[in-house]
Amino acid sequence: MNELIGRVFRFEKTVFPGSSALYGKLATHGQSPKALMISCADSRVVPELIMQAEPGDLFVCRNAGNIVPPFATQNGGVSSTVEYAVAALGVRDIIVCGHSDCGAMKALSKPETLDGMPNVAAWLRHSAAAQHVVNSCYPDLDGHDRIRAISLENVVAQIAHLRTHPAVAAAIVRGEMALHGWFVDIHAGQVLGLDGDTGRFLALREDQPLPVAVSSTPRMAMDYATVEAAE
Amino acid sequence: MNELIGRVFRFEKTVFPGSSALYGKLATHGQSPKALMISCADSRVVPELIMQAEPGDLFVCRNAGNIVPPFATQNGGVSSTVEYAVAALGVRDIIVCGHSDCGAMKALSKPETLDGMPNVAAWLRHSAAAQHVVNSCYPDLDGHDRIRAISLENVVAQIAHLRTHPAVAAAIVRGEMALHGWFVDIHAGQVLGLDGDTGRFLALREDQPLPVAVSSTPRMAMDYATVEAAE
Amino acid sequence: MNELIGRVFRFEKTVFPGSSALYGKLATHGQSPKALMISCADSRVVPELIMQAEPGDLFVCRNAGNIVPPFATQNGGVSSTVEYAVAALGVRDIIVCGHSDCGAMKALSKPETLDGMPNVAAWLRHSAAAQHVVNSCYPDLDGHDRIRAISLENVVAQIAHLRTHPAVAAAIVRGEMALHGWFVDIHAGQVLGLDGDTGRFLALREDQPLPVAVSSTPRMAMDYATVEAAE
Amino acid sequence: MNELIGRVFRFEKTVFPGSSALYGKLATHGQSPKALMISCADSRVVPELIMQAEPGDLFVCRNAGNIVPPFATQNGGVSSTVEYAVAALGVRDIIVCGHSDCGAMKALSKPETLDGMPNVAAWLRHSAAAQHVVNSCYPDLDGHDRIRAISLENVVAQIAHLRTHPAVAAAIVRGEMALHGWFVDIHAGQVLGLDGDTGRFLALREDQPLPVAVSSTPRMAMDYATVEAAE
Amino acid sequence: MNELIGRVFRFEKTVFPGSSALYGKLATHGQSPKALMISCADSRVVPELIMQAEPGDLFVCRNAGNIVPPFATQNGGVSSTVEYAVAALGVRDIIVCGHSDCGAMKALSKPETLDGMPNVAAWLRHSAAAQHVVNSCYPDLDGHDRIRAISLENVVAQIAHLRTHPAVAAAIVRGEMALHGWFVDIHAGQVLGLDGDTGRFLALREDQPLPVAVSSTPRMAMDYATVEAAE
Amino acid sequence: MNELIGRVFRFEKTVFPGSSALYGKLATHGQSPKALMISCADSRVVPELIMQAEPGDLFVCRNAGNIVPPFATQNGGVSSTVEYAVAALGVRDIIVCGHSDCGAMKALSKPETLDGMPNVAAWLRHSAAAQHVVNSCYPDLDGHDRIRAISLENVVAQIAHLRTHPAVAAAIVRGEMALHGWFVDIHAGQVLGLDGDTGRFLALREDQPLPVAVSSTPRMAMDYATVEAAE
Ligand SMILES: [Zn+2]
Ligand SMILES: [Zn+2]
Ligand SMILES: [Zn+2]
Ligand SMILES: [Zn+2]
Ligand SMILES: [Zn+2]
Ligand SMILES: [Zn+2]
Predict the structure, then answer these.
(1) What ipTM, to 2 d.p.?
(2) What value does the mean pLDDT of chain A take?
(3) What is the CATH number of the domain that holds B211?
(4) Looking at the domain assignment, is residue C3 inside a domain?
(5) Who among E83, E122, E178 is closest to D75 (CB)?
(6) Which of B74, B152, B221 sits opposite A138 (nearest CB)?
(7) Are residues E52 and D11 in contact, defined by beta-carbon separation less than 8 angstroms?
């Protein structure tokens, strides 16, 4: 038997009993997670570890490439998970988290490696903007730098997709939602954050404001009245 | 016979001969339109009249509700028209143009009027963000004000959709694309423009800078190198 | 600033005030357009100019290639615009209007030019019948003649698609709908019309009946009774 | 065990040996069927019995409601079967065959009976034109007559869908394809055929020409040249 | 006129009158078929002949490749026919029936032969599991053996798809549904059946139990209670 | 600022440095995870905690309801993640992991609670089989027991979906893939496993063989030859 699978007994014997108070509370009161994290399926990037999250802290959606399709007529698992997080759980922070050495981004950089994986290829069309930006704006990049650029632009693209989701768009207008675009460098042990105003990624620094992709500044409720008055 | 249809002969007899030099040039050299306008099918809002455009000036996409679906796995006519305008024709300005008294927006405001029109209902899901924003952020609006608010938010939503299109996203990063969100008030004879920085619509005024939804400021080509250096 | 965009002020200053009575009436009473025109996004083919239409006269749907997808389970912007025109506005004439030197039809003729435009390529599958007819029935055509043939057959194909839309099909049976297939030759300043009986395009001539693709002859309400009697 | 399933042994023991020459020829030379029949899954309407067809004679597609979706971006089993029949097998006659007492048509007539069958409901959207025609043009019909009318109009609608398929459209232009719209009355033992010129169904009579929905008269290869000359 | 089509008169003159009692009963009482058969459109494989079925015995769905797409968000004709058979007609046996020398399976074996048939190619993605199994597990097979292996695995794959349909899944749990996977060898006049326990196909033999793909053994209604008790 | 988000600095300061050898190895050699886990986005069910997995051990896909859509023509993020795990990473164990008090399953049990969440409602159609099984086979269950039954049947349904994926199906035939269906009871701190032979869930016990949903017993490569010989 797969050795990893056998470790499940430790959960029953050690982990659960050791956190029985927390689990009891979570089972009784239900969850009220503090954020939604959309990250890659990659085994090396564990959201709860990066966020130092306890059970109950973090609603998590993971897929190859940390992708959020835009809101469209036909939606799937990511859109539904976003909708549930915002509409049912009232989450007010969403983090899209990419990472270095991402297999999906490497495949996007070398599409010929996707030949035996038609579904991955189709799925990565949701990263076409990242690919297009790098091909068109940074044509001289190659190798590691090109993959890094695609991975960062992919986070930018997924943040743009997130904004098309009605529940997210409305929460932003109400000033009740912030979007975060992160990139975990698993080689350097460093996390970068997208600054939405400049479009650049900055190293997160404890002594500086956290860069935010889309901040939670409400538009005022007066807006439409103002326009009326202007006529 | 429908009287309107009979007027086509005037085109052959009067219009074409009167502009034969222009048509001759356009037929010989092909088109190189100065902008793409995405507007409603409404008969009262004639893009070429609003823009005072000659044949050859304006690439035009029109549909019920001036909608641009986001870039997704399965795309249709609007996405293709955007792609053709940017990739094949090199258009550098895209205008999304809503208008007052819009039948589609009125239907969005009163969904029960869509009962016999299942396709319109499905199509208007691409305006769900506008509907959601107004329902959630401006619950007290009703009647004419509510329809106006939905129509303005619909322009905001379609601009957000436009940004998900790879060719548009890349042109924005290169600083070669500006997006414009307009609203034509056919009662007041006035055109409003979305100011992307504040999220508000302003009356266009000849003596002031044109409000722009997404401006054409490039991110610098150094960006990724800078990030590397920061590590 | 793009010079074309600056012209919008002329609309506010000149056009609107000059037609204020018409606009006032249209704003008060709403639109009741006399026809729906489905034409190409091409900047050289201005529907209102070809039809000599005033604001309020013509409901207009425009996309790359003047395409009408057939009525299917999943419908988009064109289907919705058709549905709105027929069901909400009661339009009784629909014109599908192609044109010479059409970029979409040239791309269909040389599919390899579509390599960087996957959405246009997918969209043009709705013109596959035109492509198939010309490849299979007129294999010797090439160059300008081949593009012209594809463009004409494309109008035929889109008329066939229009007939699959329930609202259109029912209006035809009631004798309350005529479909028109036109082709504007922007080199010759000439308009051709599809004669549905023979399947050929004829020059429109003021002294002859207008060729019609599908005419508005009702089937009699007796039909089903008659069949019963025949048993 | 289900008694019907046990009858399969008779095929091995009796049917196959009794037609071994025919099966041997069909296995060696492959099939070259004389027509494609699209009929309902209904157990009472056996295509080979109605057509008096031997093995090898009739390519058959059957589904609930004898439906042919129009040719669209995403196609399924019926479209593929049509494509294979025309492109790979060279079939030159296609029969769409409806029937009396059809469960699918009855469900279309009373949509509330579809509540537990969401897929059937979605599938029957391909018959929306038939439903729309009868509701709109024959509002006074009810009961048996209404179901009969919907069933006949459904055959008309599926013939319209068939014409959107590129391989079919091209074969019609070449004069190598006839489309037949039939209705089998299993109460009266009678077969009706759609006459495409009048849009009515006629009883098939051995002493009269078979009514044809779309006949195989080619358009002449000269067509485009003629149009050129007309300019 | 196509000679086959002319044979329809024999149905009216001979077949129907000869079975008028049966047809009368079926018209009066409606159908209650004993099984659903999903088989290929191939003209050489006549389900009613193989099953020795009378009118009224067998509900039949036929398409190129005897394919059943899995139950998904968007479903088509086969899914609807399955749903109707189980939910409306209460069918308790479903037979998926492949055959030798199948054109669809040969195309799957040589995908390059599908170049002119994009819909068939797309449709056959529902047989991708069969193709993948043979390519990966039996790489040394070629020619006739490879096509046979793909055809058999295709039956296995379609049975797996059938199990994803809710109505089928529930009937299996209730013990009211058996699934059969058959293969008709039209060269040898032999029928093979899938034994679900071993995953192998066996010749059907009258003196042995019929091999069944998924048998109708109910899970006990106690199941969930039992689990509760185990805690 | 959201307190949770601020904890990210601990990752940089403490977690990464403390595991620098492991991360260094994973960054240099890439990942080779021991299993794919498909679990719910629920914040209380942390896959790495349940599996006691280190970074690099577990490829993880998470979405609302731990759903795996079946392999179909149009696939999304889960299908792509499965494909990548099997085809690119060679994963040989897949665990579908449900849990108690699941919001998605509760919504499935009371569909009226989904009114404001149309995407979640659409996504949960992939759990329709579970809903259908419980409604039809265990009609007397209600409250907590009904939700538990739906959650368990949902795991069964997703395992059935997994088997339709070509890469999974082929790996099963080769004997290189085991599928596991688990249910984590966060109230009792207990993990149940699906026994594929009986269709029941059993408590995992360290002293007994792990129940397996689909085991990795290969079919022999001789299969097709054997069938040939049987003719
Ligand atoms: Zn990754
Ligand atoms: Zn409008
Ligand atoms: Zn054009
Ligand atoms: Zn029927
Ligand atoms: Zn076959
Ligand atoms: Zn859950």
Answers:
(1) 0.92
(2) 91
(3) 3.40.1050.10
(4) no
(5) E122
(6) B221
(7) yes
